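Field: COMPLEX_INPUT
Field: COMPONENT_COUNT = two
Field: RESIDUE_TOTAL = 1106
Field: MODE = joint
Values follow.
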Amino acid sequence: MPHPAASALCFAVSFAAVLGATCLALARVDAPDPGSWTGIRPLERKLDALESFARKGPVDALVMGSSIADYGFSAELFSKLMSRHLGREYRAFNFAIGGTEPRTLPKLYRLARTVARPREVFVVAPPEQALGDEIRAPSPDFALAHAPVGAVIGHPWLLEASKLAWSTPLLKSAAALREVAVFGRAGVLAESLGADAFATDASGDKVSYFVPGSASQLPLLRERARSAVAPFPEPGPETPAKLRRMLSRYFSRPDVSAIEELRELVHRDGGELHLVAHAQAASLWQGPIRDPAYQRARTDFFHAFAAALGASFHDAAAQVAVPVFALSDNLHLNAYGAEIFTRAAFAAIAGEAMQSPETFAAPDMEWPATEALDAATLGEQFELLLRPAGEAHPLLRIRTVTSLAMTPLPSDGLRVALRMPGGGERVVPAATMGPGDVVAEVDLPASTRPQAVLVRLMQGDGHSAIVLRNPVRDYEWIASFPRLPLTTAYRPGPLQHAAFRAVRIFMGSAASEALTRRMDAGMAAPEPAASGAADAIAVIALPSTGRPGRPLFVALKRRSASAPEVELRLHAAAPPHAALALGRARPGPQELVCTTLPAVLAAGLYDIEVVDPASGTVLGRSQPVTIEAR
Amino acid sequence: MLFHTPTFLAFFLVFLAFYLPVRRTEAGVWVILAFSNVFYGWWNWKFLGLLWATIIVDYSLGRLLARTGDRTARRLLLGASLATNLGILGFFKYYNFFVSGLVVAGLDASRGWRIRDLALPVGISFYVFQSMSYTLDVYRREQEPVRSLARFAAFVCYFPQLVAGPIERLKHLLPQILSPAPITVERVIHGIFLFSLGFFRKAMADTLAAFVDPVFGHLQAAAPADVVLAIFTFGLQIYLDFTGYVDMARGVSRVIGIDLVMNFDAPYLSTSPREFWRRWHISLSRWLRDYLYISLGGNRRGLPRHLANLMVTMLLGGLWHGAGLNFVAWGGLHGIYLVLNTLWDRYAPPPARGRAPASIPRALLGWLLTFVAVNYAWLYFRSPTIADAMIANRKLAQWILHPSLPGATVGYAILVGIAALMELLIRFRAGPGWGEGLPPRPAAALARGAFAGLFVVTGLVLLAGIPTQQFIYFQF
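Field: COMPLEX_OUTPUT
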């Protein structure tokens, strides 16, 4: 090969090798992605969810709007209702994003069509006054304009290429690596995530179980919502000229252009547009606002909007009345409110009579007194969980949202406070089963009627209690504590040791000091003397005392060849010598595994056995571990 | 259009598609000219008129200067060129500064003369100086006039160096535009390597800005130790930002067979202020030396005049960077450094050659003093106003009286360490051209490819998802 050609090849190969190796290495690191491509983490999560959703079948409907639609519309329920109505599968996805204005809609649609081509687009919006022409700093439009996607969002080919580039591990992980390695601040990522605090289900619905901290402010907020939109001052028939004037009154100039752009885009794709009237949550409380001026204003607003969109209009909010427990806050509905509204929307769209919610408003439901909200001994906000009739399980398992935007739940002193329909408040101990996973020993008497229970997570007791604001993702009433798997395994070879130290240096207090200390201690500890076949693996519990529900580290040092996979068991030293499986591990020459002890465990002496799961042979046993009372 | 954006990458690929087939013909000049105008117009096409006004005036006056033998007429023609160029520069860059000066001087009536939102055309100081150097050279009969307007325009607005230099001379750049060097594997490899290096340096500069900007944005509230760190960090930031630009410009240009002049040569390893200015922004230093300092008499008219010339040159050099007393102070400070340097060399001359042991401590002390002095001067350059610079000075004094450690991370220290290592590498191994022109041995190409890959990867990690920041020198 000629000299220059060989050089060119060498250069290209080594250049590509570095890029490729970095991408491969980063693909193995589960680095958090703050949504650098769009600048809006929740939007990227929804886009990923939409992509998965679209892979499973055609997308019949895409719901777009602001946080009012994000919280207050259930695409999952809408799909079920429409499927039943049409007699075929109907699939809707909620692509609403907090802060969306009309000007954001075509951008969201352009992003959505990179992964799906919906047949129908539902714009779900409340009546609002125009906010002005300029793009304000925290809005999605501002974020999109300043993010990498901003330069290409108007060009479908470039948008696809940009999306592809930003899905590579190198670009996806870049922000996390930079923040931790250069600035030593993992917390900045959490700040950038903003509204990434709530769970989003497979249909894109944001799920909130929150209820307002107080009902006393709602009349005032309802009054504010009433005066937010004014009727169009010109009486008479709606001519095209009048509609244009109405449009320019209710919408800013960029909004008007965006509405036209969305209409063109959807029609070009052969789609159909619908406008669904929603409202601020406070204005749905106790039924629609009957003030004639408000009614006229919202009619003017929606007629102008629908005409500009070229959409059919469905006045879903006209007849909706929600109880206070269906509100997440004064602006948004919670999951129960979303169910009520979605049924109303379906009735308006399908032309059917509205049906009562199935899960929420059972006729014999026992409710806490509304005054329970204002007796805010626990703080401002509760979450409302439902307990079916006859439910007798003593434990409540709550899975909270785990995202970078949320502070992890403490493992110490976790409590769950409950307010029952009968009044009074109970505070019961709870234990973490894993990240965001809590089991509380509620031990409630069985009830013949379904109940709505106000729940709050907290840490500590009495005056020193701290209220935790980790939103509930889902919950279940269970009979016994779930079996705990081994949660983490570290293989601290020399390189890993160095890497872990580096992480500790970079991240400072963010890294688990206790973990690294234990890891160091475990690896430095002298091995117990071998005493036969049962010593194939040295087992060292770190520390030698533990408490139920707390993590326990176990150092494993393989002394001779044994089964590649082993089971760890907690073995009571005193009768009845019951063994409790802690989980399985595949130890190397030296390994540190971390497990969480069961939340319910009698105090006493235990040892940890390492067993070959195939033959049941004991391969190693730790010195006694003292389990203290919780 | 910034070099380190996908837009530029696309632009450059399209440019190559048009340019490569015709690069050694007259059409190549037209392709460069067309794409340079697109490149400049990308920021604000309205300022293309201003660029072309400079081109047309200097082209025409250059032709007239060549035709005229009369000394007075030649002076008038040169005066017209200088008046046009400096008039454009003065109006857009210094008009509001001048009006503010009148207000400060007590002429209240001038308050209303201020023009709000007077935009500064990007790169104006660079292309005006480059164009002016042509008429000055023609006036001095050091340069034949260019016959073709297109060729002259291609020289003035050659896109890789149009907005932030290096400031080229016609006799160096135009022949290369007309007859670019053959595109070889060595050139392409070296060009890509330089571009990757520049991208990495820009990424480091933008990352360091995250340590600098909050401090200079809130000087009053900042801790003294953080102010000290921010001053020195800014010195590094501006250097990496500017060298990053120049590396990318030289890399792009080298790929198409045109070599731009070196603009930096490890300046922070200089052992005296004079050496610093031989290594920092070399093309501007040479411009100021050739057309201002020497025109003023240089060092040929006695010590007082020599020192005065140094001061004037540096004050005007400071003002070239920006319209503000802080820039004047920065230039003045460097003038003082050069004056002191001249006096020191005159009254305490360096030891004779061959006495190396004696020169090492002197060099080390010289390096330390120069490094601290140069970085201290950046305080004035970076402070938004002279009042802010005074606050920073107070913080500096507080820190000297009560030293403490600033809050920096290990990542920061690593960035600074890499930058220092690069300086040492340039000075003692690679040279300012990073091995330019070396035969393309496969082993060297392998190493270059790996380093280029590393530069790109690290640069992407540092910059991905952050709003793109302009180069600092674009505002000058």
